[in-house]
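for the writeup, i need someone to sanity check this before i put it in the appendix. the sequnce is what the collaborator sent (i think, or maybe the updated version? ugh). structure was predicted straight from it, no edits. if anything looks off just tell me and ill rerun, i have time this weekend
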Amino acid sequence: QVQLEEAGGGLVQPGDSLRLSCAQSRGTSGGYAKGWFRQRPGKEREFVAAINRSGTNTIYADSVKGRFTISRDNSKDMMYLQMDRLKPDDTAVYLCAAGNTLMLVARTPRFWGQGTQVTVSS
């Protein structure tokens, strides 16, 4: 059973940057595509970004394209989400996820982390 744990959330001001991390324990890190989702207050969980097993291919939601960057380091069993030019509308609980392929993790992940809160407010 894959276990995922997020870290790096916090309170920042609009325009600031923040980097989230997702640590995988159990299982082989390179064995799964990984992704980030978020749940904003009062809204359904939504896809943010995903990366394939080797880290060579990525996809993003339109709302974060050009501002967020997903990456991974399989040697450390880690995945990251660099978030730049943050907006108040980015305020959400951010969750990492793992799945069998890039497209599957973006739609129906197999494994989820517990989430980390990101609040963007002045």
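The chain is about 5% helix and 50% strand. The first strand starts at residue 3 and ends at 7.
thx in advance!!
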